[in-house]
Amino acid sequence: MVSVEQLDGGLIEVTARLPRLAAAAVPGQFAQLRCGDHGGPLLRRPFSVAWTESQTCSFVFEVVGEGTRLLAELTAGDVLDSLGPLGRGFSVDAARGEVVCVSGGLGCAPFPLLVRSLRSRGVRDIIVLNGAASAERLYPADRFTRGDAGVGVVEATDDGSRGHHGFVTELLAPMVSSVTAVYACGPNAMLAAVATQVTGAGSPRVAEASLEAPMGCGFGTCLGCALPLRGDGRGPLWGLCCSDGPVLPLRSVDWAALLALPAADVA
Ligand SMILES: Cc1cc2nc3c(=O)[nH]c(=O)nc-3n(C[C@H](O)[C@H](O)[C@H](O)COP(=O)(O)OP(=O)(O)OC[C@H]3O[C@@H](n4cnc5c(N)ncnc54)[C@H](O)[C@@H]3O)c2cc1C
Ligand code: FES
To answer: Nearest bound ligand to CA 267?
Structure first.
C-alpha cells in the first residue's frame, strides 16, 4: 500500500508499507527502489530512508527522470518493491549536548529519521540548518521537528525569499565550534564547504556527510559508485558510495577530486 504526497516546489513524499525495512533501517541508510513494473528502468534507484513508523517507510524526492516519474505516479493500491536497508548510516553514539544538521535541497531526506534517533539517545538540542534555492523548495520545518521542542530549524534561501539570504553553510560558521556533531547532506559543493569548516582546532568530534553517486547494484559488486577519498599524498584512494558510505566522515573525502569529476553533482 502506497501514499503519495505532493509538497510545494515539486517535492514529493512517498510512504509505503515496508515492515522489514522500517524495522531495520538506521538514519542515513538507503533503499534501492524498483521504479515501475517490468516496463520501467532496469536498475533500481537509490533513496534515503526519510522516516519510518512500525510498518511504513517514507522517501522524499523530486521528478528528475524516468524512475522518479514512475515513483510519483504510484497509487494507493500499488506495491513498492524495495531492497534494503543498504549502506552505512550516521554515527549517533558519540553525539551529545548540541548537534547541528546541515541540509541543502533534497539533502533533507535523511534528517527526519536522524533527528528522531538523536533525540531518543538523549541529545539535548538539535539545530537543523535547512537551505534551498527558494522558499517553496524548502522541505517543511515541521517534518524535521515533528512537534519536538528540542529541535529547531533555521532556514536559508539562495534568493532570500525566506530566512537567511544566502548559502546555508553561512549559518554554520558561528556555531561549529560549540556543537559535538555536524551531519550534512546536500550538493557536493555544499558538503565541501561544510568540510572546510569542520577541520582544524575546536572542530566537532563527529563530522559526517551522506553522499551520492550514480549507482548500479547498491551493494558493492558493480563498482559503479566510486568516490575519491583522501589518500597518502600520491592521489586519491577510491571508496564505494554504496557500501563504504553513503555516510562518510567529511574529513575522509577528497573534495577537490570529487568536485573535479564530470558527474560530481549528478545525484
Ligand atoms: C545513496 C543515495 C541516496 C539518495 N537519496 C535520494 C533521496 O532521498 N531523494 C532524492 O530525490 N534523490 C536521492 N538520490 C538520488 C536519486 O537516486 C536520483 O534522483 C534517482 O536515481 C534519479 O532516477 P531517475 O530515473 O528519475 O533519473 P535518471 O533517468 O537516472 O536521470 C535523469 C536525469 O536527472 C539527472 N539526475 C539524476 N539524479 C539527479 C538528482 N538527484 N538531482 C538532479 N538531477 C539528477 C541525471 O543526471 C539525468 O540527467 C539518492 C542517491 C543516492 C546515491
Ligand atoms: S552501486 Fe554497485 S558497487 Fe556501488
So the answer is: 1
Omega prior to 249 cis, within 30 of 0? no
User: Can you tell me which atom of ligand 1 is nearest the CA of 263?
Assistant: 47
pTM (predicted TM-score): 0.94
Ligand 1 pocket residue status of 44, Cβ below 6 Å: no
Pocket test for ligand 2, best of 47, 243, 266 (most atoms within 8 A of CB): 243
Helix (H) or strand (E) holding 123: none
Reduce the secondary structure of 194-248 to three states and give it as a string: HHHHCCCCCCCCEEEEECCCCCCCCCCCCCCCEEEECCCCCCCEEEECCCCCEEE
Q: Considering only residues 114 and 76, tell me which one the structure prediction assigns the higher pLDDT.
A: 114
The CATH fold assigned to 2-86 is Elongation Factor Tu (Ef-tu); domain 3 (2.40.30)
Query: Is the model's pLDDT at 132 over the cut of 50?
Result: yes
| pLDDT on residue 260 | 93
| Domain boundaries of the chain, sorted by first residue | 2-86
Quick check: CB of 213 below 6 Å from ligand 1?
yes
pLDDT tens digit sequence for 168-210: 999 999 999 899 999 999 999 999 999 999 987 678 989 999 9
pLDDT > 70 in the chain, percent: 97
Residue 89 CA to ligand 1 center (angstroms) comes to 19
